[in-house]
Amino acid sequence: MRLSTFAYLSFLGLAFSSAVPPLGYERRLLRDAFDKRSSNASSTSCFADGAPSTVAPKPNVWAPLSPTDNLAVWNFLHDPAAGLNLTHPDEAVLTDNYVFWIDVLHTNKSDVLPFLDGEGPLPAKYARAIIFQGGKADPDSQEYMIGPLPVSAETTIEKLDYMYNGGSGGSVPYNARYFDGPRSTATDPLIASIMSNISDITAALFQGGAYYGAEDERSNLSLTSGTPLSFDGTQAFRNIMFRFPGPASYMTPLDFFLLIDCTGTDASLYSLKGFVTGEKFYPTIADLRSAFEAGTLGAEYDQTVDADWALVNYKPELGVRALEERLAPSTIEIGGKRYKLDEENQYVEYMGWSFYISYSQTLGFMFFDIKFKGERIIYELSMQEATAQYGGNQPKAANTVYHDTYYQLGTSIGTLVEGFDCPWGSTFWNLTYHSRNTTVVNEDSLCIFEADMNFPLSRHRAADSNDYGFSKFGTVKGAALIVRSIATVGNYDYMFDYSFHMDGSLEVIVRASGYLQSSFYYPNQGKWGPRIQQATQGSLHDHIITYKADFDILGTSNALQVSELKAVNQSQPWFPELGTFEQMELDASIMETEQQFNYFPNNQAMYVVLNQNETNAWGEPRGYRIVPGRSDIHLSILNSPWSLKNSEFAKSQLAVTRQHDNEPYANSVQNINLPSKPQQDFSKFFDGESVVDEDLVVWFNLGMHHFTRAEDVPVTLYTEAYSSIVFAPQNFFDRAQDGDLLNRRWMEVDEEGVLTYEAYGVTLETCDVVLEEPAESLGTIFDI
Ligand SMILES: *[C@@H]1O[C@H](CO)[C@@H](O)[C@H](O)[C@H]1NC(C)=O
Ligand SMILES: *[C@@H]1O[C@H](CO)[C@@H](O)[C@H](O)[C@H]1NC(C)=O
Ligand SMILES: *[C@@H]1O[C@H](CO)[C@@H](O)[C@H](O)[C@H]1NC(C)=O
Ligand SMILES: *[C@@H]1O[C@H](CO)[C@@H](O)[C@H](O)[C@H]1NC(C)=O
Ligand SMILES: *[C@@H]1O[C@H](CO)[C@@H](O)[C@H](O)[C@H]1NC(C)=O
Ligand SMILES: *[C@@H]1O[C@H](CO)[C@@H](O)[C@H](O)[C@H]1NC(C)=O
Ligand SMILES: *[C@@H]1O[C@H](CO)[C@@H](O)[C@H](O)[C@H]1NC(C)=O
Ligand SMILES: *[C@@H]1O[C@H](CO)[C@@H](O)[C@H](O)[C@H]1NC(C)=O
Ligand SMILES: *[C@@H]1O[C@H](CO)[C@@H](O)[C@H](O)[C@H]1NC(C)=O
Ligand SMILES: [Cu+2]
């Protein structure tokens, strides 16, 4: 469509700049020259306007805590009357009690449904708080629930034990609790003393690099140790790897590891366990020194001190690509926004879809009450955990398993760059979370936009025996609403997309970019990944992103149907010459009990969540299919001591459970340091309960086996590191939900060759730029 393309471009030039909403500070920093161009051209373009507003049918009962409630809870906890004997975190040492964080507590579904669907009361709001209790005789971390909110005479502080099945409720042993500032500070004197003692050795091995302590200006090595740092909470250790510091320190690891024991709250008892370098273990300083003096230490390659190669900036040395100085194509909501928002209630309506968005500091954005054309499909859709497990013949990679909720993944969701992270003109929402008694705003951290799918939703050109090639020709526009956020948790930038398609299907996508957690490169270590730079190995690892989909297909009475495609030998009397012959048939059954399971080999089974009591016009039960997308994997290793019982949710592609108020989450946020004695053991959800005609929850995993490569430098690419799944109507309707869309073209050619072309009033000129679509152009488009 040559003419239309021309119209589109002039349209851009005319009206682009007025699409920009008021800017905040960080956004202003991020804005680039293109975006700054601010003409005063008439702002009459359709897409310049924000989304029309709507009013949510009910208030958002899943909303995060308000700043007022957070402050009130903070003050309530710190009131001496609460009896918690809390110290301010800034002043706290290991043997004090202090607040780790406060967040909203999941609202029980059994309280929400009567409110949402009937005249039930507004569910009470509760906060949850994790308090480190180093001041106790048996120090631990204890989680509390505080409510109802707002704080009043009725508000109480109770131990939050009910949702943990590990046996100790909301209590986590001191050794396994989050490794925060005070714990890190407590280990530094030991590390500094050991590393000062051997500074001549590290300087000789690592280009003058030495470590004298976190606050010592002479230190020019940085250190890192990950998780788990305990197996069952009776011990704590740090397997420390040294690196060259800087913005890309993840990419400049050194071949030097210090292993220490840091059990308990008495730092004077912390001790050296040994050193590792050159794949050898040295239990004492003396052992290390004698190896050094014997000249046996040292690596073949030097790590790069200047890691400019690891920055995501322009690298002219890669060459010039013709025409690359031109602006790249963009998705633009050219006809004006086609979704409605209730920002106060974080509620969205789009093309038949409606849903609420919520947010938690650990899980990030969550979706509730997802309906299509007024019928509920999913009660809750939320990311539950982002796990990564590494492999390598050295202590750091072998020891590393991450649960990113431990690091409060939700608070790592940051500002998005318009035009790059999300299309120009997207709706941006701020993210608000609380830190102690204050409220932090991460500006423009959620974006909402409708995107051209760049392929039609459906089409058919009915071949005919006339002379014109076709007689009837229909094609329907493909578009989807995408809700996106990006969490940068340490090294990785996880991009979370939820795509609401026109036909009632819903796609969940996760992508990963950012730095590899790399290792020092030794020759002949290909088993754990390739050499990707002078002295850097891309460490092999798995990413497993666990999600919860609490389906409510037309109510809570649902079942999971498994339709296996089977090859069977049959005979058919009209093919006597074949005798028995093989063909395929469907073997459908209903899954009886809760279980973890994997997709069939060759994807030879279909999974459908359906309501056996609700049928479509054809008498078929109405349901939604779970369609595997790209890279729907589970963890490669199932019996690692580092992820033994605290990562069970990562070990199957799918799972189905009965919904229970006391099983809201797949994982607990401090489970990572308890692999052999978990606070929450997902596998205990599977206790033989029936999932037939029950309220069921589907847990699914996306992820990537990260086969690292030189192209992970400087950072991993979103093109390759992505995984997806689709939930698609399966006999939910009586026909495809594309008939009611006006964004389509319909053409008919009669016997005389006269073309009728129907655009249903939807053309490019719905914006200012009026441009006739001249009839003669059709000839060139359709070659008739
Ligand atoms: C836009 O208009 C305002 C008010 O007339 C003026 O102050 C401003 O300089 C104009 N901006 C540009 C980029 O022309
Ligand atoms: C309160 O905690 C402090 C440590 O922060 C401790 O020294 C003190 O004994 C505690 N008081 C009570 C009454 O438990
Ligand atoms: C360094 O470590 C060795 C071996 O443990 C010890 O004998 C020596 O006293 C230490 N030196 C210093 C300065 O701490
Ligand atoms: C570390 O600091 C020392 C002393 O300033 C210097 O000689 C050496 O080059 C530095 N090494 C690195 C890797 O930064
Ligand atoms: C986002 O936060 C900034 C800074 O606090 C504020 O100016 C802006 O109005 C907020 N945006 C929205 C949509 O609330
Ligand atoms: C938050 O706590 C700090 C330190 O205790 C205090 O200075 C500040 O006034 C508090 N802010 C509010 C809003 O209460
Ligand atoms: C069908 O019969 C053939 C011949 O006996 C056999 O080789 C094949 O495995 C059978 N297929 C199935 C699905 O049983
Ligand atoms: C489904 O319908 C049957 C027959 O009407 C009824 O007996 C049964 O209780 C219904 N089941 C559910 C879960 O509603
Ligand atoms: C939520 O349900 C659990 C399990 O039934 C219960 O223990 C808990 O008290 C409920 N929470 C609220 C806020 O009512
Ligand atoms: Cu990776």
From TrEMBL:
<dbReference type="GO" id="GO:0005886">
    <property type="term" value="C:plasma membrane"/>
</dbReference>
<dbReference type="GO" id="GO:0008131">
    <property type="term" value="F:primary methylamine oxidase activity"/>
</dbReference>
<dbReference type="GO" id="GO:0005507">
    <property type="term" value="F:copper ion binding"/>
</dbReference>
<feature type="active site" description="Proton acceptor">
    <location>
        <position position="404"/>
    </location>
</feature>
<dbReference type="InterPro" id="IPR000269">
    <property type="entry name" value="Cu_amine_oxidase"/>
</dbReference>
<dbReference type="GO" id="GO:0009308">
    <property type="term" value="P:amine metabolic process"/>
</dbReference>
<dbReference type="InterPro" id="IPR015328">
    <property type="entry name" value="DUF1965"/>
</dbReference>
<keyword id="KW-0801">TPQ</keyword>
<keyword id="KW-0560">Oxidoreductase</keyword>
<dbReference type="GO" id="GO:0048038">
    <property type="term" value="F:quinone binding"/>
</dbReference>
<feature type="modified residue" description="2',4',5'-topaquinone">
    <location>
        <position position="492"/>
    </location>
</feature>
<feature type="domain" description="Copper amine oxidase N2-terminal">
    <location>
        <begin position="91"/>
        <end position="149"/>
    </location>
</feature>
<feature type="active site" description="Schiff-base intermediate with substrate; via topaquinone">
    <location>
        <position position="492"/>
    </location>
</feature>
<feature type="signal peptide">
    <location>
        <begin position="1"/>
        <end position="19"/>
    </location>
</feature>
<keyword id="KW-0186">Copper</keyword>
<dbReference type="Pfam" id="PF01179">
    <property type="entry name" value="Cu_amine_oxid"/>
</dbReference>
<comment type="similarity">
    <text>Belongs to the copper/topaquinone oxidase family.</text>
</comment>
<dbReference type="InterPro" id="IPR036460">
    <property type="entry name" value="Cu_amine_oxidase_C_sf"/>
</dbReference>
<feature type="domain" description="Copper amine oxidase catalytic">
    <location>
        <begin position="331"/>
        <end position="736"/>
    </location>
</feature>
<protein>
    <recommendedName>
        <fullName>Amine oxidase</fullName>
        <ecNumber>1.4.3.-</ecNumber>
    </recommendedName>
</protein>
<dbReference type="InterPro" id="IPR016182">
    <property type="entry name" value="Cu_amine_oxidase_N-reg"/>
</dbReference>
<keyword id="KW-0732">Signal</keyword>
<dbReference type="Pfam" id="PF02727">
    <property type="entry name" value="Cu_amine_oxidN2"/>
</dbReference>
<keyword id="KW-0479">Metal-binding</keyword>
<dbReference type="InterPro" id="IPR015798">
    <property type="entry name" value="Cu_amine_oxidase_C"/>
</dbReference>
<dbReference type="InterPro" id="IPR015800">
    <property type="entry name" value="Cu_amine_oxidase_N2"/>
</dbReference>
<dbReference type="InterPro" id="IPR049948">
    <property type="entry name" value="Cu_Am_ox_TPQ-bd"/>
</dbReference>
<dbReference type="Pfam" id="PF09248">
    <property type="entry name" value="DUF1965"/>
</dbReference>
<feature type="domain" description="DUF1965">
    <location>
        <begin position="251"/>
        <end position="313"/>
    </location>
</feature>
